[in-house]
Amino acid sequence: MQQYILSSFVSKGGGGNKAAVVFDDFGMSDYQMLGIAKKNNFSETAFIDFRRSDINRFNIRYFTPTEEVDICGHAALASFHVLKQLGYLEEGIAYHRTKAGELKVLIEKDIILIEMKKPEIVMQLDKNIIMKTVDATMDEIVTDEEGMVDVISTGLKDIILEVNSLESLRKMNIHKEKMIEICKEYSLIGMHVVSRETIEKNSDFCCRNFAPAVGIDEEAATGTSNASLLYYMMKKNSEFDYGKTYKIEQGYFMNSPSNIYVKADKSSNSIFVGGNARIDNMEEIFYSR
Fold first, then answer.
1. Which of 20, 45, 78, 219 would disulfide-bridge 209, Cβ 3.0–4.6 Å?
2. For residue 253, is pLDDT > 70?
């Protein structure tokens, strides 16, 4: 059975977020998939079930080292990049069968864009709660008129925190134990912090992602959280450009510069996230039936 190791959301400078993609030709059990994901020890491992997939519809499940999740943006990109490179896909539209539902995939010449779960604001948190988790001043964070900060989900629930400058983003530190406490209390994955100021002129946003509650102090590239970021921006901007593909910088302060591309479909209220990926390794893996 083949397993591919990829870096998703890579930029010209490298970067990216590693994921494993397993070609499951046999129909592994949940226990077996979790065992492989635990051994890999990446944030996610994707399992493509070829027995239940057909010409352009692929059944894919996602496991962290500790549990199954409904969807994962960077592991989904890794999966469809491998499928494209190996000739299973041509340019056009494919479909992604997940525990979040059947989602559309746009196979374009230069990038792959994957539909995320329909966005929703699941709650808001008071700025005073947020301030307990980050090393920032009150005037550096952006809230609504009532001092509230959105928690948004496009598959996973993240606090979307806007800051007022690139410098505020760069110097930000988290209070790890307090953030873990808040995330567990409200069943959140983590916090996605965004600045409208960017490092590169052709970028639209620069961000950092903190998820210590799931064992990730900071992530160099993420999918669902950047889809949630775009939804946040849609709600804040009455003149939002639905015809544009937005470029997001992430990992630049970790020496792992990554580029994530996001776009919104107004007619379906869907958000697509994607970019480029790189195959780093392929290996044969074995398991006991």
1. 219
2. yes
**Class for domain 2-116+275-284, per CATH?**
alpha beta
Closest-CA residue to 47 (of 30, 56, 39, 57): 30
Task: Work out the average pLDDT over 143-152.
Answer: 97
Determine contact, residues 190/179, Cβ cutoff 8 Å: yes
Q: How high does pLDDT run on average in the chain?
A: 94
- CATH number, domain 120-250: 3.10.310.10
Predicted confidence (pLDDT) per residue in 177-225, tens digit: 999 999 999 999 999 999 999 999 999 999 999 999 988 899 999 999 9
The bridge status of strand 190-195 relative to strand 157-163 is parallel
Q: Provide DSSP, 30-94.
A: HHHHHHHHHHH-SS-EEEEEGGG--SSEEEEEEE-SS-EES--HHHHHHHHHHHHHTTS--SEEE
Q: Report the alpha-carbon angle 210-216-222, nearest 5.
A: 65
Q: Domain extents for the chain?
A: 2-116+275-284, 120-250
User: Which residue from 28, 62, 17, 18 is spatially nearest to 285, judged by alpha carbons?
Assistant: 28
Cβ–Cβ < 8 Å for 172, 134: yes
Strand, coil or helix: 109:
coil
Residue 239 corresponds to which tokens in the numbers above? Answer: 């003149």
89-135 per-position pLDDT tens digit: 877 899 999 998 999 999 988 899 999 999 999 999 999 999 999 99
CB atoms within 10 A of CB 185: 10
Residue 138 confidence (pLDDT): 95
CB-CB neighbours of 175 under 10 Å = 15
Q: List the one residue out of 149, 183, 145 whose CA is nearest residue 163.
A: 149
Matching fold, domains 2-116+275-284 and 120-250: yes
Distance CA 114, CA 165 (A): 29
Q: Residue-wise over 12-37: b if at least 16 C-beta within 10 A, else e? A: eeebbbbbbbbbbeeebeeebbbbbb
